[in-house]
Amino acid sequence: MTTVRGHATGATSATGGSVQPRIFFPELEGMRGVAAVMVMLTHIALTTGMIASDMYGAAGNPVAGPIFNTMDVSVPIFFVLSGLVLYRPFALATLTDRPPMALKPYFWRRALRILPAYWLLTVTALLVLNADAVTGLWYVLRPLLVLHVYQPNAMPTGMEQTWSLATEVAFYVTLPLLAWALRRWAVRATDPGARARRLLVPLGALVLTGAGFAAYHHLPSMGAFPIQHLWPTEYMGYLAVGMILAILSAIAEVAPERTPAAYRFLIRHPGAAWIGAALAYAAACSPLGGPNEMNYPPLGSAMVDHILYLAIALLLVAPLTLPAGRPGYMRAALSNPVLRFLGRISYGVFLWHVFYLWVYYGTTGTPLGTGNFWLITAAVAGASVVTATLSFYLLERPAMGLRPWWGRAPVDPGAQAPSTVREQLPAGREAAQWEPRSTEPATPAVATE
């Protein structure tokens, strides 16, 4: 989340290489479901005192606390997925001389996927949890425009996790410009392999730049939880890693003989990546990852976590990008109906679970930092899944039905990877006529602390 959709066999790319049939990655949808559950469990563990935090005066559970605390690796997982799935069609276009993606349909589909469900949460949270705090029109417009992370103390109650949506929106807006610049740089080479290598260099620099911003945001002079920590700058490296995976997956599909050695190793040994991810997760749960508290970490611990989280997300997602298919155990783990359903409604789960946490604590009078973890998990997860399901079928899916109004796109989205021509075409840059299709994920890749 491998189904092959019909295209003529034997098609050639604009650069003369053969291309494989259109590929569908159901495991990516299942991975989103896993990440959504991790997001929810992290917040529940924090508010019930399972995770140590000064905010709630909780000592935390010494065994379970680090495990739940490290589940905020869902941040890089979601961002890597976003960079991968949204940049892959741009990467394929660059490697094969396919015309660039049209911008109007791109922005139209992104808006339809993100805004209706988000606006519903925003209005509900403002009315139910923030009515006394609304002091003017800007208090309402700011979250509706996803600008509430750029001012201190502007986060409405029940929407705290939506800081990451601001990073996503910034990525959606800037991706076409970034893809255009990368294409201008890459097409100076005529060979797909050389183009892929040229694309990887600036994206590698973005990974380092993101790490640099993470270090800056955790300098002692910045204080605890500075507003800049919520801005996109710290997370650009995770998005760039996803874009790097998109390039590697694309080159392995259109020119397998030019695939970099590391990715060829992954093709032969995909399980090694998950073993590495498990080891990195264990390291993040250990004292190596710092005190494992939901407090703002010092510079050293923050950078260790940044590197470990990047490694976990990279190693978890990388095997799911293989064009030739994933091992059976990966398909079984992530393509089962339960996880694929959770992946499909994961945007709603992400949006609503914090709202229901505050509703639970407000109506029961339970002090924050306490409470029965399992009882609250059952209540919040149940309410979130029901609401997310209703949101998907009554709001999000109908909104997606409007997508073909502005450019071709399937109504039912999925993590799809288009790469092939519809018919046999002669080699040559000017002869290629590619069929544009959506490769958007079923849910936006949103994340949480």
Topology:
Blueprint lengths: L2 E3 L16 E3 L2 H21 L16 H6 L4 H23 L6 H26 L8 H8 L18 H24 L5 H26 L18 H19 L6 H8 L1 H16 L13 H19 L10 H7 L2 H8 L1 H19 L8 H28 L15 E2 L32
Antiparallel strand pairs: 1-2, 2-3
Helix pairs in contact: 1-3, 1-12, 1-13, 1-14, 1-15, 3-6, 3-7, 3-8, 3-11, 4-14, 4-15, 6-7, 7-8, 7-11, 9-10, 10-11, 14-15
Pfam families: Acyl_transf_3
Protein name: Acyltransferase
EC number: 2.3.-.-
Ranges with pLDDT <50 over ≥5 residues?
1-22, 410-443, 445-449
Structural class: mainly alpha
The protein's oligomeric status is: single chain
Principal-axes geometry comes out as: globular
Query: In what order do the strands lie side by side in the largest sheet?
Result: 1-2-3
Cα(first) to Cα(last) distance is 25 Å
Q: How many β strands by DSSP?
A: 3
Major β-sheet profile: 3 strands, antiparallel
**Content of β-strand:** under 5%
Can you walk me through this structure?
It comes from Micromonospora reichwaldensis. Its EC number is 2.3.-.-. This is Acyltransferase. This protein is mostly helical and 449 residues long. It contains 15 helices and three strands. Strands 1-2-3 form a three-stranded antiparallel beta sheet. Helix 1 crosses helix 13. The chain starts with a strand and ends in a 32-residue tail after the last strand.
Structure in a nutshell:
The protein is an all-alpha fold and 449 residues long.
Characteristic key phrases:
EC 2.3.-.-, mainly alpha, 15 helices, 3 strands, 449 residues, disordered C terminus
